[in-house]
Design brief:
Elements (H helix, E strand, L loop, with lengths): L3 E3 L2 H5 L8 H13 L3 E5 L1 H12 L4 H10 L2 E4 L2 H8 L2
Parallel strand pairs: 1-2, 2-3
């Protein structure tokens, strides 16, 4: 069984926003990927991230590659997401 962790969008948003503790969010995501954690997020994650980018006048074309690079597996359905969380 692999280690799974759910990443909240507000942590991820710190990657592209100039906010306090941005460096800690980046270090956390880097650590999780290096330690072979499976980072998962509900399908709303994408909408939340893209909405924050839009409000902050950041082009979504810049955000999508960051999501892909971070190896986040977006769970398309809430029941599937819940099933993975309790495994």
């Amino acid at each position: 069984m692999s280690n799974k962790i759910v990443l909240d969008s507000c942590v991820f948003n710190k990657i592209f926003l100039q906010e306090p503790e941005r460096d800690k969010a980046i270090a956390l995501i880097n650590h999780l990927t290096k330690q072979s954690y499976q980072i998962i997020a509900p399908s709303l994650f994408l909408y939340e991230v893209l909405a924050v980018a839009k409000v902050n006048n950041i082009d979504n074309k810049q955000i999508y590659p960051i999501i892909l690079k971070s190896w986040i597996q977006v769970i398309n359905a809430i029941p599937e997401f819940m099933r993975l969380c309790v495994q």
